[in-house]
């Protein structure tokens, strides 16, 4: 059993541009092989599902130059596989360095982060232990380190100094967030330990910042 690079690349392009799912793509390949249904074709769908994920991982590593690293992919830096926003200001990359900016223009180099939690992505727990192919290399934080922090702090009671009857902590729960190491799974609801971890993980990747603007709907808690 083998899958050609042309086949893997074709599915990758179709799923990005045409939003075609893996099952329909594989079914189309089967119909192209035998559209009569008279022949029993080998069931290779599960193998294809595994190999396409591995191929996409190799493409991500290739795009950031990991194939030229003598230490291998283990040396991949946190967040290195995340696709950078070309429009976001980054001193030294698409704008002048901090020190070279005029005093009146330095506000443009300010990092602005918006933090929230999202409860719309829910999957039934099927007791499946997925192998983490990109441990902290892209958008999700490294699971082992994250779980270690949760074990030590998740049970801590959260203090609140907000007396408003319109408290966002109990009234609203929504989120959309992107960026390096900016996503993780919620454990027992929206906890400060979870939000603190992803904020610090993101800031650690970007290094030293002169200005930071952070917004969080329940920061007053």
UniProtKB/TrEMBL annotation:
Ranges for domain CxC2-like cysteine cluster KDZ transposase-associated: 2-37
Transmembrane annotation, as ranges: 197-216
Pfam families: CxC2, KDZ
Keywords: Membrane, Transmembrane, Transmembrane helix
InterPro entries per record: CxC2_KDZ-assoc, KDZ
Keyword flag Ribonucleoprotein: no
Transmembrane helix in keyword set: yes
Protein name stated in the entry: CxC2-like cysteine cluster KDZ transposase-associated domain-containing protein
Native source organism of the sequence: Hericium alpestre
